[in-house]
Protein backbone atom coordinates (compact mmCIF):
# COMPACT_ATOMS: atom_id res chain seq x y z
CA UNK A 1 0.00 0.00 0.00
CA UNK A 2 2.83 2.37 0.84
CA UNK A 3 4.51 1.62 -2.50
CA UNK A 4 1.31 2.46 -4.39
CA UNK A 5 0.97 5.70 -2.45
CA UNK A 6 4.63 6.58 -3.08
CA UNK A 7 4.30 5.83 -6.81
CA UNK A 8 1.14 7.93 -7.00
CA UNK A 9 2.82 10.87 -5.26
CA UNK A 10 5.87 10.58 -7.54
CA UNK A 11 3.69 10.42 -10.65
CA UNK A 12 1.62 13.45 -9.54
CA UNK A 13 4.77 15.42 -8.64
CA UNK A 14 6.33 14.50 -11.98
CA UNK A 15 3.24 15.67 -13.84
CA UNK A 16 3.14 18.93 -11.88
CA UNK A 17 6.85 19.54 -12.48
CA UNK A 18 6.44 18.83 -16.20
CA UNK A 19 3.54 21.24 -16.56
CA UNK A 20 5.11 23.99 -14.43
CA UNK A 21 8.50 23.82 -16.16
CA UNK A 22 6.80 23.89 -19.56
CA UNK A 23 4.87 26.98 -18.46
CA UNK A 24 8.11 28.63 -17.29
CA UNK A 25 9.89 27.75 -20.53
CA UNK A 26 7.05 29.14 -22.64
CA UNK A 27 7.06 32.30 -20.53
CA UNK A 28 10.81 32.66 -21.07
CA UNK A 29 10.23 32.58 -24.84
CA UNK A 30 7.22 34.90 -24.42
CA UNK A 31 4.90 32.33 -25.99
CA UNK A 32 1.40 32.71 -24.56
CA UNK A 33 0.18 29.37 -25.91
CA UNK A 34 0.78 27.23 -22.81
CA UNK A 35 -0.33 28.88 -19.61
CA UNK A 36 -0.90 27.64 -16.11
CA UNK A 37 -3.62 29.82 -14.62
CA UNK A 38 -2.01 30.71 -11.30
CA UNK A 39 -5.03 32.74 -10.17
CA UNK A 40 -6.90 29.52 -9.44
CA UNK A 41 -4.53 27.05 -7.72
CA UNK A 42 -7.26 24.49 -7.08
CA UNK A 43 -8.04 24.34 -10.81
CA UNK A 44 -4.31 23.82 -11.50
CA UNK A 45 -4.22 20.93 -9.02
CA UNK A 46 -7.32 19.47 -10.71
CA UNK A 47 -5.65 19.84 -14.13
CA UNK A 48 -2.53 18.02 -12.85
CA UNK A 49 -4.60 15.21 -11.32
CA UNK A 50 -6.69 14.85 -14.50
CA UNK A 51 -3.53 14.88 -16.65
CA UNK A 52 -1.79 12.27 -14.49
CA UNK A 53 -4.87 10.04 -14.29
CA UNK A 54 -5.51 10.26 -18.04
CA UNK A 55 -1.89 9.47 -18.81
CA UNK A 56 -1.84 6.54 -16.38
CA UNK A 57 -4.94 5.08 -18.04
CA UNK A 58 -4.03 5.88 -21.64
CA UNK A 59 -0.39 4.75 -21.67
CA UNK A 60 -0.98 1.01 -21.11
CA UNK A 61 -4.02 1.04 -23.41
CA UNK A 62 -2.18 2.81 -26.24
CA UNK A 63 0.87 0.58 -25.75
CA UNK A 64 -1.27 -2.53 -26.15
CA UNK A 65 -3.04 -1.14 -29.21
CA UNK A 66 0.27 -0.12 -30.78
CA UNK A 67 1.91 -3.46 -30.03
CA UNK A 68 -0.98 -5.36 -31.59
CA UNK A 69 -1.67 -3.12 -34.59
CA UNK A 70 1.30 -0.87 -35.29
CA UNK A 71 4.49 -2.04 -33.54
CA UNK A 72 6.49 0.84 -34.99
CA UNK A 73 4.41 3.27 -32.89
CA UNK A 74 5.27 1.68 -29.55
CA UNK A 75 8.07 4.18 -29.00
CA UNK A 76 5.70 7.11 -29.44
CA UNK A 77 3.10 5.89 -26.95
CA UNK A 78 4.35 8.15 -24.15
CA UNK A 79 4.26 11.21 -26.34
CA UNK A 80 0.82 10.39 -27.75
CA UNK A 81 -0.63 9.70 -24.30
CA UNK A 82 0.87 12.99 -23.05
CA UNK A 83 -0.80 14.88 -25.89
CA UNK A 84 -4.19 13.25 -25.28
CA UNK A 85 -3.89 13.65 -21.49
CA UNK A 86 -3.13 17.38 -21.92
CA UNK A 87 -6.15 17.68 -24.21
CA UNK A 88 -8.38 16.01 -21.61
CA UNK A 89 -6.94 18.16 -18.79
CA UNK A 90 -7.62 21.38 -20.71
CA UNK A 91 -11.17 20.26 -21.50
CA UNK A 92 -11.98 19.22 -17.92
CA UNK A 93 -10.10 22.00 -16.09
CA UNK A 94 -9.72 24.97 -18.45
CA UNK A 95 -9.50 27.28 -15.44
CA UNK A 96 -6.19 25.66 -14.46
CA UNK A 97 -4.43 25.03 -17.76
CA UNK A 98 -4.80 26.87 -21.06
CA UNK A 99 -3.22 25.56 -24.28
CA UNK A 100 -3.62 27.26 -27.66
CA UNK A 101 -1.70 27.77 -30.90
CA UNK A 102 0.74 25.50 -32.66
CA UNK A 103 3.51 25.95 -30.09
CA UNK A 104 1.14 24.94 -27.32
CA UNK A 105 -0.12 21.83 -29.07
CA UNK A 106 3.09 20.72 -30.83
CA UNK A 107 6.03 21.80 -28.66
CA UNK A 108 4.44 21.73 -25.19
CA UNK A 109 3.50 18.01 -25.18
CA UNK A 110 7.08 17.15 -26.11
CA UNK A 111 8.47 19.26 -23.26
CA UNK A 112 5.88 18.00 -20.75
CA UNK A 113 6.62 14.41 -21.79
CA UNK A 114 10.41 14.83 -21.45
CA UNK A 115 10.28 16.66 -18.13
CA UNK A 116 7.67 14.32 -16.66
CA UNK A 117 9.69 11.30 -17.76
CA UNK A 118 12.86 12.68 -16.18
CA UNK A 119 11.08 13.76 -13.01
CA UNK A 120 9.41 10.38 -12.45
CA UNK A 121 12.79 8.73 -13.05
CA UNK A 122 14.79 11.03 -10.75
CA UNK A 123 12.28 11.76 -7.95
CA UNK A 124 12.44 8.27 -6.39
CA UNK A 125 16.22 8.56 -6.05
CA UNK A 126 15.95 12.01 -4.46
CA UNK A 127 13.16 10.90 -2.12
CA UNK A 128 15.05 7.74 -1.14
CA UNK A 129 18.19 9.75 -0.44
CA UNK A 130 16.24 12.15 1.79
CA UNK A 131 14.52 9.28 3.60
CA UNK A 132 17.86 7.60 4.27
CA UNK A 133 19.39 10.86 5.50
CA UNK A 134 16.41 11.52 7.77
CA UNK A 135 16.59 7.99 9.12
CA UNK A 136 20.32 8.35 9.77
CA UNK A 137 19.79 11.68 11.54
CA UNK A 138 16.96 10.21 13.59
CA UNK A 139 19.03 7.29 14.92
UniProtKB/TrEMBL annotation:
Span of the signal peptide: none
Name recorded for this polypeptide: Superfamily IV 4 TMS phage holin
Record flagged with keyword Protease: no
Residue intervals passing through the bilayer: 9-29, 41-61, 73-93, 105-126
Alphabetically ordered keywords of this record: Membrane, Transmembrane, Transmembrane helix
Organism: Isoptericola chiayiensis
UniProt xrefs under InterPro entries: MFS_trans_sf (IPR036259)
Lineage: Bacteria, Bacillati, Actinomycetota, Actinomycetes, Micrococcales
